[in-house]
Amino acid sequence: MTPEMRNTLSPFLDKAIAQGIPADEVERWLDTARPCATLSQGGDGPAVGMFGGPLMLPADTPTPVFPFVASVDLAALPAGATDLPLPPDGHLLLFAFPDDDGDLINIGEVVYVPAGAATEERDRNSGFWSEVDEFREMVEAFPQGRLRATTTPSLPSHHAVQIPGSSRTAPLPGHPRSRELAELWEQTRGDIATEGPLQIGGYASEEAVHLDPVSSVVECAVRTAESRGWGGAVSGAVEDWVLLADWSPRIEGMEGAVVHWAIQREDLTARRFDRTVATVFWNP
Q1: Which residues contact 229 (CB under 8 A, 6 or more apart)?
Q2: Would you tell me how many other CB atoms lie within 10 Å of the CB of residue 161?
Q3: Which parts of this chain are annotated as the region Disordered (predicted)?
Q4: Domains and CATH numbers, the chain
Q5: How many other CB atoms sit within 10 Å of the CB of residue 124?
Q6: pLDDT tens, 93-150?
Q7: Burial code of 201-240, b = ≥16 C-beta within 10 A, e = fewer?
Q8: How far apart are CA 158 and CA 238, in angstroms?
Q9: DSSP designation for 41
Q10: How far, CA to CA in Å, does 187 sit from each of 11, 190, 264?
Protein backbone atom coordinates (compact mmCIF):
# COMPACT_ATOMS: atom_id res chain seq x y z
CA MET A 1 0.00 0.00 0.00
CA THR A 2 1.61 3.24 -1.13
CA PRO A 3 1.51 6.38 1.06
CA GLU A 4 -0.64 8.03 -1.60
CA MET A 5 -3.22 5.26 -1.47
CA ARG A 6 -3.21 5.25 2.31
CA ASN A 7 -3.94 8.98 2.20
CA THR A 8 -7.13 8.25 0.27
CA LEU A 9 -8.35 6.48 3.41
CA SER A 10 -8.10 9.66 5.48
CA PRO A 11 -11.89 10.25 5.41
CA PHE A 12 -12.37 6.78 6.92
CA LEU A 13 -9.75 7.54 9.58
CA ASP A 14 -11.39 10.84 10.49
CA LYS A 15 -14.89 9.37 10.73
CA ALA A 16 -13.71 6.42 12.81
CA ILE A 17 -12.00 8.69 15.31
CA ALA A 18 -15.04 10.98 15.39
CA GLN A 19 -17.10 7.88 16.19
CA GLY A 20 -15.00 7.32 19.29
CA ILE A 21 -12.68 4.56 18.09
CA PRO A 22 -9.13 5.15 19.41
CA ALA A 23 -6.71 6.39 16.77
CA ASP A 24 -4.25 3.54 17.36
CA GLU A 25 -6.99 0.96 16.71
CA VAL A 26 -7.98 2.72 13.51
CA GLU A 27 -4.36 2.87 12.37
CA ARG A 28 -3.99 -0.88 12.99
CA TRP A 29 -7.08 -1.44 10.87
CA LEU A 30 -5.64 0.70 8.08
CA ASP A 31 -2.48 -1.42 8.24
CA THR A 32 -4.59 -4.30 6.90
CA ALA A 33 -5.51 -2.38 3.72
CA ARG A 34 -4.65 -4.01 0.42
CA PRO A 35 -4.52 -2.56 -3.08
CA CYS A 36 -6.81 -4.14 -5.61
CA ALA A 37 -7.69 -3.65 -9.26
CA THR A 38 -11.32 -2.82 -9.92
CA LEU A 39 -12.33 -3.69 -13.47
CA SER A 40 -15.31 -2.09 -15.15
CA GLN A 41 -16.55 -1.28 -18.62
CA GLY A 42 -16.47 2.46 -18.03
CA GLY A 43 -13.90 4.98 -16.90
CA ASP A 44 -10.62 6.06 -18.44
CA GLY A 45 -8.27 3.49 -16.91
CA PRO A 46 -6.07 1.22 -19.02
CA ALA A 47 -7.74 -1.59 -20.94
CA VAL A 48 -6.73 -4.79 -19.17
CA GLY A 49 -9.10 -7.47 -20.42
CA MET A 50 -12.57 -8.41 -21.52
CA PHE A 51 -15.80 -9.86 -20.32
CA GLY A 52 -16.46 -12.68 -22.76
CA GLY A 53 -14.81 -12.62 -26.16
CA PRO A 54 -13.19 -15.57 -27.96
CA LEU A 55 -12.06 -18.43 -25.73
CA MET A 56 -8.39 -18.93 -26.64
CA LEU A 57 -6.56 -21.84 -24.99
CA PRO A 58 -3.30 -23.73 -25.57
CA ALA A 59 -3.83 -26.95 -27.55
CA ASP A 60 -2.92 -29.15 -24.57
CA THR A 61 -5.32 -27.38 -22.15
CA PRO A 62 -8.70 -29.10 -21.72
CA THR A 63 -11.75 -26.92 -22.28
CA PRO A 64 -13.11 -25.96 -18.84
CA VAL A 65 -16.55 -27.29 -17.97
CA PHE A 66 -17.64 -23.96 -16.48
CA PRO A 67 -18.77 -20.95 -18.54
CA PHE A 68 -16.17 -18.41 -19.65
CA VAL A 69 -16.47 -15.14 -17.71
CA ALA A 70 -13.50 -12.92 -18.49
CA SER A 71 -9.86 -12.67 -19.51
CA VAL A 72 -7.32 -10.42 -17.80
CA ASP A 73 -4.07 -9.28 -19.45
CA LEU A 74 -1.64 -9.33 -16.53
CA ALA A 75 0.96 -7.21 -18.33
CA ALA A 76 -1.63 -4.45 -18.73
CA LEU A 77 -2.49 -4.20 -15.03
CA PRO A 78 -1.09 -0.99 -13.52
CA ALA A 79 2.04 -1.46 -11.42
CA GLY A 80 1.11 -2.06 -7.79
CA ALA A 81 -2.53 -2.68 -8.65
CA THR A 82 -2.53 -5.65 -6.26
CA ASP A 83 -0.16 -7.12 -3.69
CA LEU A 84 -0.58 -10.60 -5.16
CA PRO A 85 2.48 -12.38 -6.62
CA LEU A 86 0.86 -12.61 -10.05
CA PRO A 87 2.89 -13.47 -13.16
CA PRO A 88 4.13 -10.27 -14.87
CA ASP A 89 2.49 -11.19 -18.15
CA GLY A 90 0.20 -13.70 -19.81
CA HIS A 91 -3.56 -13.93 -19.37
CA LEU A 92 -5.79 -15.15 -16.57
CA LEU A 93 -9.01 -16.71 -17.83
CA LEU A 94 -11.85 -16.83 -15.30
CA PHE A 95 -14.64 -19.40 -15.48
CA ALA A 96 -17.70 -19.78 -13.25
CA PHE A 97 -21.29 -20.95 -13.09
CA PRO A 98 -22.84 -18.58 -10.51
CA ASP A 99 -25.34 -20.99 -8.99
CA ASP A 100 -24.81 -23.87 -6.57
CA ASP A 101 -28.40 -24.81 -5.60
CA GLY A 102 -27.52 -23.88 -2.03
CA ASP A 103 -24.71 -26.43 -1.77
CA LEU A 104 -21.14 -25.45 -0.98
CA ILE A 105 -19.47 -26.79 -4.11
CA ASN A 106 -16.77 -25.58 -6.46
CA ILE A 107 -18.45 -23.59 -9.24
CA GLY A 108 -15.46 -22.29 -11.19
CA GLU A 109 -11.84 -22.45 -12.23
CA VAL A 110 -8.98 -20.34 -13.55
CA VAL A 111 -6.64 -20.98 -16.47
CA TYR A 112 -3.33 -19.17 -16.85
CA VAL A 113 -2.13 -18.76 -20.44
CA PRO A 114 1.57 -17.76 -20.51
CA ALA A 115 2.65 -14.91 -22.75
CA GLY A 116 3.59 -16.11 -26.21
CA ALA A 117 1.84 -19.47 -25.85
CA ALA A 118 0.27 -20.79 -29.04
CA THR A 119 -3.50 -20.89 -28.62
CA GLU A 120 -6.56 -22.05 -30.50
CA GLU A 121 -10.16 -20.92 -30.28
CA ARG A 122 -12.54 -23.23 -28.42
CA ASP A 123 -16.30 -23.53 -28.38
CA ARG A 124 -17.56 -21.38 -25.51
CA ASN A 125 -20.87 -23.20 -25.44
CA SER A 126 -19.87 -26.82 -24.93
CA GLY A 127 -20.38 -27.15 -21.18
CA PHE A 128 -23.07 -28.99 -19.22
CA TRP A 129 -25.02 -25.77 -18.87
CA SER A 130 -25.54 -25.37 -22.63
CA GLU A 131 -28.07 -28.23 -22.74
CA VAL A 132 -30.44 -26.76 -20.14
CA ASP A 133 -32.53 -23.77 -21.22
CA GLU A 134 -32.48 -22.07 -17.82
CA PHE A 135 -28.72 -22.45 -17.47
CA ARG A 136 -28.02 -21.39 -21.05
CA GLU A 137 -30.12 -18.25 -20.66
CA MET A 138 -28.19 -17.34 -17.52
CA VAL A 139 -24.85 -17.68 -19.27
CA GLU A 140 -26.07 -15.76 -22.31
CA ALA A 141 -26.80 -12.87 -19.91
CA PHE A 142 -23.15 -12.69 -18.80
CA PRO A 143 -21.67 -9.23 -19.48
CA GLN A 144 -19.57 -8.71 -22.61
CA GLY A 145 -17.03 -6.05 -23.52
CA ARG A 146 -13.75 -4.34 -22.77
CA LEU A 147 -12.60 -3.98 -19.15
CA ARG A 148 -10.64 -1.04 -17.76
CA ALA A 149 -8.75 -1.04 -14.47
CA THR A 150 -8.60 1.35 -11.56
CA THR A 151 -6.28 0.78 -8.60
CA THR A 152 -8.13 1.31 -5.35
CA PRO A 153 -7.77 0.45 -1.64
CA SER A 154 -9.55 -2.50 -0.09
CA LEU A 155 -10.33 -3.01 3.60
CA PRO A 156 -12.04 -5.98 5.27
CA SER A 157 -15.81 -6.08 5.01
CA HIS A 158 -15.86 -8.99 7.46
CA HIS A 159 -15.32 -8.53 11.17
CA ALA A 160 -15.20 -11.94 12.86
CA VAL A 161 -13.42 -15.28 12.95
CA GLN A 162 -14.81 -18.67 13.92
CA ILE A 163 -13.68 -19.92 17.32
CA PRO A 164 -12.15 -23.39 16.74
CA GLY A 165 -14.41 -26.18 17.97
CA SER A 166 -17.29 -23.80 18.59
CA SER A 167 -20.19 -22.27 16.72
CA ARG A 168 -19.32 -18.92 18.24
CA THR A 169 -17.26 -16.17 16.67
CA ALA A 170 -14.86 -13.55 17.95
CA PRO A 171 -13.60 -10.18 16.67
CA LEU A 172 -10.71 -10.27 14.24
CA PRO A 173 -7.47 -10.86 16.19
CA GLY A 174 -5.89 -7.58 17.24
CA HIS A 175 -9.01 -5.61 16.36
CA PRO A 176 -11.48 -5.62 19.28
CA ARG A 177 -13.70 -3.09 17.48
CA SER A 178 -13.56 -4.82 14.12
CA ARG A 179 -17.34 -4.87 13.76
CA GLU A 180 -17.61 -1.09 14.05
CA LEU A 181 -14.69 -0.60 11.67
CA ALA A 182 -16.07 -3.00 9.06
CA GLU A 183 -19.50 -1.38 9.24
CA LEU A 184 -17.93 2.06 8.87
CA TRP A 185 -16.03 0.87 5.80
CA GLU A 186 -19.29 -0.28 4.23
CA GLN A 187 -20.72 3.18 4.87
CA THR A 188 -17.76 5.11 3.47
CA ARG A 189 -16.23 2.91 0.76
CA GLY A 190 -18.44 4.35 -1.96
CA ASP A 191 -16.85 7.77 -1.38
CA ILE A 192 -13.30 6.40 -1.19
CA ALA A 193 -12.88 3.32 -3.36
CA THR A 194 -13.78 2.77 -6.99
CA GLU A 195 -16.20 -0.11 -7.41
CA GLY A 196 -16.84 -2.35 -10.38
CA PRO A 197 -18.24 -5.77 -11.28
CA LEU A 198 -14.84 -7.52 -11.30
CA GLN A 199 -12.10 -7.16 -8.70
CA ILE A 200 -8.59 -8.62 -8.76
CA GLY A 201 -6.99 -9.01 -5.34
CA GLY A 202 -8.04 -7.16 -2.20
CA TYR A 203 -10.68 -8.46 0.20
CA ALA A 204 -13.78 -10.42 -0.69
CA SER A 205 -17.16 -8.86 -0.04
CA GLU A 206 -20.81 -9.86 -0.24
CA GLU A 207 -24.15 -9.01 1.33
CA ALA A 208 -24.41 -9.50 5.09
CA VAL A 209 -20.69 -10.12 5.62
CA HIS A 210 -19.74 -11.63 9.00
CA LEU A 211 -16.88 -14.06 8.40
CA ASP A 212 -14.34 -13.64 5.62
CA PRO A 213 -16.07 -14.89 2.43
CA VAL A 214 -12.82 -16.65 1.54
CA SER A 215 -13.51 -19.00 4.46
CA SER A 216 -16.36 -20.56 2.45
CA VAL A 217 -13.95 -21.19 -0.43
CA VAL A 218 -11.52 -22.83 1.98
CA GLU A 219 -14.26 -25.03 3.43
CA CYS A 220 -15.27 -26.03 -0.09
CA ALA A 221 -11.66 -26.90 -0.98
CA VAL A 222 -11.23 -29.03 2.14
CA ARG A 223 -14.47 -30.91 1.44
CA THR A 224 -13.44 -31.49 -2.15
CA ALA A 225 -10.04 -32.83 -1.11
CA GLU A 226 -11.59 -35.15 1.48
CA SER A 227 -14.17 -36.56 -0.92
CA ARG A 228 -12.07 -37.18 -3.99
CA GLY A 229 -8.53 -35.92 -3.48
CA TRP A 230 -7.01 -32.87 -5.03
CA GLY A 231 -3.47 -33.67 -6.06
CA GLY A 232 -1.73 -31.99 -3.16
CA ALA A 233 -2.05 -30.57 0.34
CA VAL A 234 -5.06 -28.40 1.14
CA SER A 235 -4.89 -26.05 4.11
CA GLY A 236 -7.99 -25.39 6.15
CA ALA A 237 -6.51 -22.14 7.48
CA VAL A 238 -7.98 -19.05 5.83
CA GLU A 239 -4.71 -17.16 6.27
CA ASP A 240 -3.06 -19.61 3.85
CA TRP A 241 -5.39 -18.45 1.07
CA VAL A 242 -5.87 -15.21 -0.85
CA LEU A 243 -8.70 -13.80 -2.87
CA LEU A 244 -7.79 -13.96 -6.54
CA ALA A 245 -10.94 -12.33 -7.89
CA ASP A 246 -14.49 -11.29 -7.03
CA TRP A 247 -17.24 -11.00 -9.63
CA SER A 248 -20.71 -9.53 -9.30
CA PRO A 249 -22.61 -10.85 -12.36
CA ARG A 250 -25.46 -8.33 -12.04
CA ILE A 251 -27.77 -10.68 -13.90
CA GLU A 252 -31.51 -10.11 -13.72
CA GLY A 253 -32.96 -12.55 -11.25
CA MET A 254 -29.60 -13.04 -9.49
CA GLU A 255 -29.15 -9.60 -8.02
CA GLY A 256 -26.63 -9.60 -5.18
CA ALA A 257 -24.81 -12.75 -6.29
CA VAL A 258 -21.02 -12.70 -5.92
CA VAL A 259 -18.48 -15.26 -7.15
CA HIS A 260 -15.24 -15.61 -5.17
CA TRP A 261 -12.14 -17.23 -6.68
CA ALA A 262 -9.45 -18.01 -4.09
CA ILE A 263 -6.15 -19.84 -4.17
CA GLN A 264 -3.59 -21.01 -1.63
CA ARG A 265 -0.68 -18.60 -1.34
CA GLU A 266 1.88 -21.27 -2.16
CA ASP A 267 -0.10 -22.36 -5.23
CA LEU A 268 -0.27 -18.78 -6.47
CA THR A 269 3.47 -18.33 -6.04
CA ALA A 270 4.05 -21.58 -7.95
CA ARG A 271 1.49 -20.56 -10.62
CA ARG A 272 -0.65 -23.62 -9.98
CA PHE A 273 -3.81 -21.84 -11.04
CA ASP A 274 -5.54 -25.16 -11.66
CA ARG A 275 -5.83 -25.37 -7.86
CA THR A 276 -8.05 -22.28 -7.69
CA VAL A 277 -11.46 -22.85 -6.08
CA ALA A 278 -14.59 -20.75 -6.58
CA THR A 279 -17.82 -20.42 -4.62
CA VAL A 280 -20.86 -18.22 -5.07
CA PHE A 281 -22.83 -16.25 -2.51
CA TRP A 282 -26.43 -15.46 -3.33
CA ASN A 283 -29.26 -14.56 -1.01
CA PRO A 284 -32.38 -14.83 -3.21
Answers
A1: none
A2: 17
A3: 149-176
A4: 3-281 (2.30.320)
A5: 16
A6: 999 999 877 788 999 999 999 999 999 999 998 888 788 888 889 999 999 999 999 9
A7: bbbbbbeebeebbbbbbbebbeebbeeeeeeeebbeebee
A8: 13
A9: S
A10: 11, 7, 30
